[in-house]
Automatic annotation (TrEMBL), chains A, B:
<comment type="pathway">
    <text>Cofactor biosynthesis; iron-sulfur cluster biosynthesis.</text>
</comment>
<feature type="binding site">
    <location>
        <begin position="200"/>
        <end position="202"/>
    </location>
    <ligand>
        <name>pyridoxal 5'-phosphate</name>
    </ligand>
</feature>
<dbReference type="InterPro" id="IPR010240">
    <property type="entry name" value="Cys_deSase_IscS"/>
</dbReference>
<feature type="active site" description="Cysteine persulfide intermediate">
    <location>
        <position position="326"/>
    </location>
</feature>
<comment type="subunit">
    <text>Homodimer. Forms a heterotetramer with IscU, interacts with other sulfur acceptors.</text>
</comment>
<keyword id="KW-0411">Iron-sulfur</keyword>
<feature type="modified residue" description="N6-(pyridoxal phosphate)lysine">
    <location>
        <position position="203"/>
    </location>
</feature>
<dbReference type="GO" id="GO:0006520">
    <property type="term" value="P:amino acid metabolic process"/>
</dbReference>
<keyword id="KW-0963">Cytoplasm</keyword>
From TrEMBL, chain C:
<dbReference type="GO" id="GO:0016226">
    <property type="term" value="P:iron-sulfur cluster assembly"/>
</dbReference>
<dbReference type="InterPro" id="IPR017787">
    <property type="entry name" value="NIF_FeS_clus_asmbl_NifU-like"/>
</dbReference>
<dbReference type="InterPro" id="IPR002871">
    <property type="entry name" value="NIF_FeS_clus_asmbl_NifU_N"/>
</dbReference>
<protein>
    <submittedName>
        <fullName>Nitrogen fixation NifU-like protein</fullName>
    </submittedName>
</protein>
<dbReference type="Pfam" id="PF01592">
    <property type="entry name" value="NifU_N"/>
</dbReference>
<feature type="domain" description="NIF system FeS cluster assembly NifU N-terminal">
    <location>
        <begin position="4"/>
        <end position="125"/>
    </location>
</feature>
<dbReference type="GO" id="GO:0051536">
    <property type="term" value="F:iron-sulfur cluster binding"/>
</dbReference>
<dbReference type="GO" id="GO:0005506">
    <property type="term" value="F:iron ion binding"/>
</dbReference>
Amino acid sequence: MERIYMDNAATTATDPTVLEEMKPYFTEVYGNPSSFHSFGREARDAVREARDKVADLISADDAKEIVFTSGGTESDNYAIKGVAEELKDKGKHIITSSIEHHAVLHTCEYLEDKGFDVTYLPVDEDGLVDPADVKDAIREDTILITIMLANNEVGTIQPISEISEIAQENDITIHTDAVQAVGSIPVDVNELNVDLLSLSGHKFHSPKGIGALYIRQGTRIEKYLHGGAQERGRRATTENVAGIVGLGKAAQIAGQNLEEKQAKITQLRDKLIDGILEEIDEIKLNGHRTKRLPGNVNFSIRYIEGESILMKLDLAGIAASSGSACTSGSLEASHVLLAMGLSAEVAHGSLRLSLSKYNTEEDIDKVLNVLPEVVSDLRAMSPIYNQD
Amino acid sequence: MERIYMDNAATTATDPTVLEEMKPYFTEVYGNPSSFHSFGREARDAVREARDKVADLISADDAKEIVFTSGGTESDNYAIKGVAEELKDKGKHIITSSIEHHAVLHTCEYLEDKGFDVTYLPVDEDGLVDPADVKDAIREDTILITIMLANNEVGTIQPISEISEIAQENDITIHTDAVQAVGSIPVDVNELNVDLLSLSGHKFHSPKGIGALYIRQGTRIEKYLHGGAQERGRRATTENVAGIVGLGKAAQIAGQNLEEKQAKITQLRDKLIDGILEEIDEIKLNGHRTKRLPGNVNFSIRYIEGESILMKLDLAGIAASSGSACTSGSLEASHVLLAMGLSAEVAHGSLRLSLSKYNTEEDIDKVLNVLPEVVSDLRAMSPIYNQD
Amino acid sequence: MMDYSDKVMDHFENPRNVGEIEDADGVGQVGNPSCGDIMKMYIKVDDDNKISDVKFKTFGCGAAIATSSITTELVKGKTLDEAKELSNQAVAEALGGLPDVKMHCSNLAADALRKAINNYLGIETEEEDDFHCHHQHG
Ligand SMILES: Cc1ncc(COP(=O)(O)O)c(C=O)c1O
Ligand SMILES: Cc1ncc(COP(=O)(O)O)c(C=O)c1O
Ligand code: FES
Ligand code: FES
């Protein structure tokens, strides 16, 4: 069966060009970048080039501001724990939103256990944080604002530049989890005006297990991994050279004709959204209609439950998700949808279809063909669906 | 120029078989193991198999005791900070040795900053920790003993089973950094009787950026990366599937005829050691003569300095190291050699040649051919060398 | 996470006895939509106190649907006493096992059935607590 992958917010396929670029760094150019000799030098050069490419993609002033990590989760942990640790004598208050990824939320909860105070800002029904709420939440002892650039479940894009202006006025460090945004939409750390930004390669066609934390020069932050002097002393461990090369290549490719690709994916997304709205009744589009990631489609489908939708779709060869990949399977109603004001019942029937550059018009047609029947089959079985 | 790689303690070449095994997991089997659909299931299956292979290599009772990490440094940070965090109400004293890798030492220093008390045990002139010293160092409030299985610079293998017996008698958690040992010598977590064990793939022909922490069932430890529920909630972040598959394959390969390979490499090592001792005077073999990793050769060569030896060797196409890869380049005298009682002067002239299964008899001959001249050239230039 | 047996998949894809029984002798419902699952069982009881017909409707996960389906198969033709004895363990076993995190789903079907039987027998069962999901998720 020809399968269709529409779970690109969970992870993406590595671009074959990226893999080609990586290959030599396993068996041929295998030196340790910290090593003195020629094997080490070759690896060092490769890491340097990749760092430049990642810096380019997010318009960092200096490649030194890029620290490679093992992915978005580590970047988030590093940023939040690192600032908290470094500035704890200045204050113990952190501001975040209630719709962050678990990598941010659970890190904040961990810090609460350690005596920090965290404000979880509400969002409106589209999933937007109000910058005025950020302003109101600021206290004498606020040391960090961490708000995601784009949400992984509903795709809503936050007004980070406005929030960072408030942060700057109050001299507070600001971090943004841009894991879903980088590679999908133009991201410029200076326009966003953030001190710290997390990104993860596997969301834009580099392999899994490699990411980066952007650390603006001068930002005070304790290191996260202690050990050797790699990454200018900011992240110990032998560099994942092949992964870093892959991330660099993926960043370079993502930056090429970014806006064109964005427009094409947005057009597919809109076709999918419009088609679903036309074919299926009693559903609700989750997330902002336009301030939204190009590839994100998220619906709540009343009277049926997400996992069973996924199973039916999977049997039809369509890979999708209900809520974020991390929570799908546990059948907890998504904290994001609940924060947006959905009832648990409606939240349980959520379906996310997320597109990448590899999706085609035919994929959209197939989904539009299959989904309505899946929904009506499940509704026919549902004790809470009123068939008349 | 045909180059010879003798820096396998810094990192190893990925085995081509390992790379072959990994390849599909980039562009074909690219699902997120946490995802519900068939793409996710395939990835999940691959991770499960790899976990079994890693568990096998170290004779873990249950594959669930293996948590994948981004490498040895993260495993060490996780183990030490995780136990410290979890047991800090029980006590704040940690016992380690003075010759640990920086991933352990700097983590311990970080904890000292946080109010923990760390005892750094001395070693004898061979780099051996005396179990009696461990016993003497134990206090009411000791919560963790962390002592490496094999040293990365001098290759000395510690009597971990004896130390773990003491730990057990006193009901203290014990961790061992086995990064240099796993894949090189038989490692059995039950024989060693440790609660936690760090390993890193790139030391035994898997790619860099992937490792594991063995956590014996029942061990109390706080998680390190907070976020999603991956790795049974013990390590958040989308799994580095290709890396994990690579680690699994490398573990499988390492386990095959391990003792035969060990014997072969030991024989090459001994030929190299004996040859060097024969050809060059005023040198000292560092590390225990027999309780030593099969691939480790480490000499202090008097009157000359390590970096210049490395440069000369590099020019001759031989990749070696002076001290660990992490510190080479910073030209600080190795803390390991100093702890073993060497003077800073002698420590500065240290040379590590580390072998893997890819090294040959010819490689040894080439080094034995080149090194004596390198040494005499540099000595001829040295103001402290007395030529008569 | 979710790796279902072939048997589960079969019952999910081809659920047996889906629907309602207009003139049911007993009806039982458990669950709560805000918990992500509701199961409703309808039974017909014949003169020998045997379940002559049984149907279900389920809003829930794949395991919930599959366990509902197999439960109807397991109890059809059984006496009420036999049916009441049906354990969630037996339901799970009949499906070739359930993933650990889904074991609780098998409670639902057996519970719904028991409620339907009690309803037929005129026994009041305690109402579900509406504010907490009656079983642990995940
Ligand atoms: C918004 C967001 N933040 C963080 C992460 C974590 O990234 P990773 O899986 O690379 O650790 C993800 C994806 O899983 C995400 O979507
Ligand atoms: C003994 C020892 N521990 C820890 C490490 C760190 O491992 P990694 O570079 O994979 O983080 C190394 C190697 O660098 C090592 O030799
Ligand atoms: S003279 Fe170069 S490091 Fe000291
Ligand atoms: S019934 Fe399956 S998760 Fe609740």
